[in-house]
Amino acid sequence: MKSIIVPVDFSNQSEKALKIAAGLAKANKAELLVLHMLEISPAIISRGEEYVPQVQMVHLIKAIEERMAAFLDKPYLSDVHLTPVIKHYKVFSEVNDLAEKHNADLIVMGSHGTDGLDEIFIGSNTERVIRNSSIPVLVVKGDHPEDYAIERFVFACDFREENITAAQQAKDFANALGASLKLVYINTPGDGFLSTPEAYEKINHFLAKANLGIEVEVFNDYTVERGVINFAESYGAHLIGIPTHGRKGLSHFFMGSIGEDVANHSGIPVITFRIS
């Protein structure tokens, strides 16, 4: 892992993401690109950037640079290779452009509440970044220590062949962190229920096709989202991984609100991997 991007808006949630990103950067001796998206009034933008008063822009950028410097004046960043970046475009497209330019390996984002609740995906910049990102996106919610270590990593999927690339990426990510990886299949009541032999037949076919020698657990629960969270908590996981279809939305395994609920209701950080 050579480069990590963390978008910040100077909020408490973005600082929580910054702490996790700094820890990952230290552990992997990676560069940390701290990105702030400069918000300019739509009325000004609509008139064309050439009409934005130069003096106003200079003062605005100077003020943001000073605020960024103050925000990054943290002891836990003192020995991190850090590069501040200020842009003034749409977050969800610009982050991926920056990732491609710097060949970044990971984006780390803090979650924000909606109406005071810890709901983050619907209509949020986090969701838009995930949908546009070609690299993994790590979503952080809640407080975690500065030295938060990812030692146990759970990756959940439905073991369809389309998830092979995402599972391989999860294995590579775990190897980069020196974390143990466990895959889980959530078995729920209803039409999709599989017997234990059926579940393992499906899993073994997937592992053979993916050339993965990873331990897999079959976990029974009433819903997929609760099963993922309950299993991760019982396993003592430090990270939950899920596959996504990017612009096409969340994987059909997480159709509708399932993937959103996993991230929204889990106190454990969640990382998404793009399905090819």
What does this structure look like?
There is one protein chain. By secondary structure, this protein is α/β, with parallel strands linked by helices. It folds into two domains: 3-140, Rossmann fold; 152-274, HUPs (Rossmann fold, 3-Layer(aba) Sandwich). Helix content is 39%, strand content 20%. The chain has helices at residues 12-28, 42-46, 54-71, 91-101, 125-132, 164-177, 196-210, 224-235, 258-265, and strands spanning 3-7, 31-37, 82-87, 106-110, 137-140, 152-156, 180-187, 216-220, 239-244, 270-274. The chain has a ten-stranded mixed sheet with strand order 3-2-1-4-5-10-9-6-7-8, sandwiched between helices. The longest helix has 18 residues, at 54-71. Mean pLDDT is 83; it is low at 113-123 and 249-257.
List its salient traits:
single chain; 276 residues; alpha/beta; Rossmann fold; ten-stranded mixed beta sheet
